[in-house]
Each structure stands twice: as C-alpha cells, then as structure tokens.
Amino acid sequence: MLRVTQTKNTLLDGATIDSQLYTTPQDCEDFFESIEKPTTVVAAPRPTFIRVGVLTTVRGSAYMEYGNTKVMAIVAPPRELIRSNVRRVNMGVINCYVNFAAFASDDLEAVPEREKHLSSMLTKALQPLVCRNEFVNFQLDIRVLILDDDGCLLSTAINCCGVALIECGISTYDLITASTACIYRDHVFVNPTAKVEELLWQHRAGNALLGSSSKSKEEKEEQKDVQQHGLLIIASMETFEQLAQCQQCGYLKPETYVQLLDFTLEINKSLRQLIKRVLTERVKEQHVLDMREKQLEHQEDQRLAAIIEKLQQQGLHEFIQSNIKEDPYTAK
Amino acid sequence: MAYVALSEAEKTFILHGVEEDFRCDGRSRRDYRPMELETGLVSNASGSARLRLANTDILVGVKTEIDVPNPLTPEFGKLEFFVDCSANATPEFEGRGGSNLAQELILSLQNAYESPLAFDYRTLCLIPGQQCWKLYIDILILECGGNLHDAVSLAAKAALYNTKLPRVTATLLDAGITDLIISDNPYDCTRIGIDALPLLVTVCKIGDYCLVDPTAEEEVCSTVSMVVSVSMRQDTPYLSGTHMTGGGSMHRDTMLNCIQLGLSMGEQLNKLLLKMLQSEETRVGPKRPKTVGFLK
After folding, report:
1. DSSP E strand boundaries for chain A
2. Which candidate from A88, A121, A128 shows the least CB-CB separation from B247?
3. Contacts of residue B244 in chain A, CB cutoff 8 Å?
4. pLDDT, tens digit, for every residue of A83-95?
C-alpha cells in the first residue's frame, strides 16, 4: 500500500495534510478505532467565525468558518424571471447553486453529484425563510462556494446564506440556523467531521455494521439488535420554533431521531446568539461608516458654501479672474 | 410537482374538507386511494411493475448488469435509480421540464435505499471484490395525479420483488481470472429479499391537519409536506430517510406527529403490499414446467 508521510501544519490547528491514496475497509475500521469517541454529548457549536459583507461585487455576501469547514455565500438582489421558464406560481423563485472550489474536495468524481444534492437541499431549506411573496415574478440567485470541507457542509451553508440574505436586505421571516448530528455504532457525534461523515456515507459503514460474512454467530446476535447509524441535519427558526428543513439519512429508530433532533436544536440556539451578535456588530460598523461619510459630505458642503459666498461677494468676473492661474504662454 | 390551477374558493373547500376529516373523494385523512399493481409485464426487463394509484401511473423496469464493486465495499452490489418524467403526464414535462422533479425523486429514493440495512447489498455480490450485480431501476412516470413519492417507491419495491437474477456459476481460470457462466434456464434464478426495502410516505400538512396520499389538488393547498421513508425490520418500523418539501416550515411537535403518522401508514402499506405481491405470485406467477425425460 502506498503511504505518504503526513505533514503537520500549524495554520490548520495542527491538522494533518492527508494524502492517503487508497483506503480499504480495514482503514475505515482503524480510523474509527483511532478517533475520540465522545462519552457525553456536548451540544455546542464548533469554533465559529462569521464575517458579513466580504465582497464588493455583490450586495450580500458572507464568509463563515465552522471549525475547518470554510464556506462563502453570495446573494444578488432579485431579478426578473426569464419569461420562457416561468413556473406559474405567485411566489418568488429561489435558485441556489453550490459549488466546490477546485481544491475543496479530493474526491473529484463525486463532486458534481454532491453539488446537485446540496443545491437542492439548500433551496428547500431557504424557501420557508425568505418572504417570497414580496418578489412575485422575480428570482433570487444564491451562490455558495465551498472552500474547505470538514463535515457539516449543508448546515454551514445554510447558516452562511441566512446571514448573506440579511446583508443583501432581502426580507426574511426569521433568522435561520442549522446544525448536524449523527450516530454511528452507538456513539453520537455532534458536528461530525468529514472523516466521520465519510464513515457513514455510501454504505462504507455498512461493511463494518454487518460484520464480515465469516462471523456468522455474531451476525445472528446483531440481527436481534439492529445497529443504528444515521445523519440528521436540522435547520430551524427559533422565534416561532419552526423547523425549516430536516434531512435524515441512514437507519434510525424514531426515538433516536428525536434524541438527535434535540441535540441539533440546542446547537442551533447557541448559533443563533452568535449570528445575532455578528449582525448587530455589522449594523454598528455600518453606522460608523455612514456617519463618517455624512461628515465628509458635510465638509464638502461647507467648502462649496464658502465658494458660493465668495462668488456672491466678488462678482462673477472677478471670481473667474482670481481663480485663473496665469498662462505662461498667453502672457508672452 | 405538476401544476393545477385552483381558485381561492376551491382551496377553501378542500381545506374545510380536511378539517372535517372528509376529503373531496370521500376519504378520511388516513386513507389511501385505490391502487392497481401488476408485476412482470415488461418482457425485456429482469423485473417490472406497473402501479396505478388513482390517477398516478408509474411503470418501473429493472435491468441487470455485471459490474465491479467499489473497493471500499467489496461485498456489495450496486443500485442505480433513474426517473423519467414523460411529457404524457403533463405538458410541463416537455423537453427538460421534468428534470427537477425527476432529480428530486431520484435523490429521495437514493437516500432511502442508501443504508445497507434497508437494502441488503450483499445479495447482489457474485465474487467479493471482483464481480457484482448492478441493478438499474428505471422509473417512468406516465401520469401525474399527486403523491408521486409514495407511488414511485411502491412500484420500485414491487419491481424489485419481481426481479429475477439468473444464477451465475464461476469457474476459476489461470492467473486468478474468473469466468462467469450465466444460466440459460429462465427458471433457474435468484430473487431479492424485499422485507426491509423502504417505502416512502408523504405526509402532507393542510391547514392544521396532517394527511396521507394527497391528490394533485391537495398538494397545491398544502403548505409543507414531509417525506418519511419507512423500512420494516423485525416488525418494527425504522426511519431510513426523511426530508421536508413544499417550501414551508413546521413546528417540532407537528413534525414528530407527521413522522408517527408516516411510520404507522408505512407499516400498513408494507404489510398490504407484501400480501398482494405474494398472492399475485401464487395465482399468476411463473410455474416451473414439469420436466419430461432428459429434456430440460
């Protein structure tokens, strides 16, 4: 097997730059053994950084780091629907486009499908948020660029878009927050990293779950107690305790579903506090900038007023004469 | 979903009907419309089913192919869903009009069938790490009368029940290369276990009430609906994928109610579907002809 020595990087909080070319089911097993399994679930968000208004090219933009997941969202003001593909609805249309940066994912083959999936889920999550009745016959384009993927992609994208929408001045019913939780071999992971999500994904987990076919005895025991595994993404709007989107995959008992749901709602609550603070700070910052601009305008007005006053006192001809610098050529 | 023009008065009428637990076609909120199911009608496919749920008409064909398994899951076969929205269903589907809806259906089916507990991918394994079956499940939507998710999943499950994989024997040649011999006898085949295959149940919220099996008109009236994928294992229902559609939001408690309703409906549907499929099989299914003499 090909193995490359792993490089440590301080910029990425000591995360390793991973360049393992081939993985086998055994590697997944080893990885699961190696990771820290949380004994008690702490329903708190990861270290988060949100910056609103990062681009000058569009009205609404936001950048968000959720742990090592880095996402940028861009919202342009609504524009008129192109006649040919109008769906006859009395609501505005939301189009979301999610794109991976070329360096964001190492599994390039799966990118187009994931983009499609994320786009459609994001559209569904944002539909209840935006007051779509305010721009009938208009469409709202929301673009998301994923710079780095370390799990919780969809929930981070939803959070980021929610902030960008507000920056763009699109009216929304509430603030939206989203988070992810998953369960794998009886361990609950909140905010799962990309590696943990990968374990769950594409029935890679399945091999481990069902056990190798040789262990028939164990299999029979397992059959009695079905091993649950699954991922839950919840987007919520706290004011009226509404859930904007819930997406679940995997295989879960209804009771486990409720358990995961409550964890995500808890995280959403604390994320909401953070987003609120970021937005109020943004408004304050905008206010300071506005004040400064006003002051500059005021100074300019004063200067002009002084000139006009001078003009009135001197009369037009004299004023022009006094302001013309002598041309060295005509003087000769 | 396909578009139906409804006036405010019509919407109010439907809404009031739902509140009274007496819908336009006389059903209660927990009733399904009559279904017609037929399996094994496409001779070119390995398995097929046609489902007619009132006005919704679905045709599913299953094709098989031999493929190489994913190195991470050497013991697993593959499934691929494809949905085609025929322009016969609605003029809206002309050209690429239906691609969004098709994409949504494909994603929810993929999501539901993703877990190895929902579909035992190991039954599709021929030689671990080398050869496996790949099933193409082609779904054709012939008419759109609402509740596509449920109809599509029912038809897909029936088609998978009907699927016959020819028996394959392998001979080991030199240098570890295996040669597959596929049985010529059409009766010499293996079947796919469908006990745990998930069914999608759409729970639709109209006004303050949740209902199942919405018609196209009711879909227009609903603010939000929830697609619950139910998989039965040892007589207990499991969730193998849920999501919300329809552009609305709902309260946590409403959502849990929807899931409960979906699970109980899925359980009943599953039971009935299995019963009907088995009774069809015994009545009109292929009978093995008696072999006479040395001719097989």
Report:
1. 7-8, 16-17, 48-52, 60-66, 69-75, 79-80, 93-100, 138-148, 177-184, 187-190, 229-237, 242-252
2. A128
3. 124, 243-247
4. 655 555 678 888 8
Under 8 Å between Cβ of A229 and A184? yes
Cα(B76)–Cα(B131) distance, rounded to whole angstroms? 10
The reported pTM is 0.84
Residue-range definition of the domain harbouring residue A70: 15-287
- The model's pLDDT over A283-310, given as tens digits with 9 standing for 90+, comes to 999 999 999 999 999 999 999 999 888 8
- By Cβ distance, the residue of A25, A203, A237 closest to B115 is A203
Q: Domain B8-172+179-280 is of which CATH architecture?
A: 2-Layer Sandwich (3.30)
- Residues of B within 8 A of A24 (CB-CB) are 71-72
Calculate how close chain B gets to A303, using CA atoms only, in Å: 55
Q: Could you say which of A132, A206, A261 has the minimum Cβ distance to residue B116? A: A206
Q: What is the CATH number of the domain that holds A242?
A: 3.30.230.70
d(CA B62, CA B139): 9
CA-atom Rg of chain B in angstroms: 21
DSSP-derived secondary structure for B109-162: HHHHH-STTTS-GGGGEEETTTEEEEEEEEEEEEE--S-HHHHHHHHHHHHHHH
Residues of chain A contacting residue B75, judged by C-beta atoms under 8 Å apart: 207, 213
Between CA A95 and CA A76 the distance in angstroms is 11
Contacts of A87 in chain B (CB under 8 A): 3
Whole-complex ipTM = 0.85
**In Å, how far is A212's CA from the nearest CA of chain B?**
9
Domain contains A177: yes
Residue spans of the domains in chain B: they are: 8-172+179-280
| Residue of A109, A203, A264 to mutate when probing chain B, most B C-beta within 10 A | A203
Q: Looking at the complex, does the CB of residue B123 fall below 8 Å from at least one CB of chain A?
A: no
At a CB cut-off of 8 Å and minimum separation 6, what does A86 contact?
A: A137
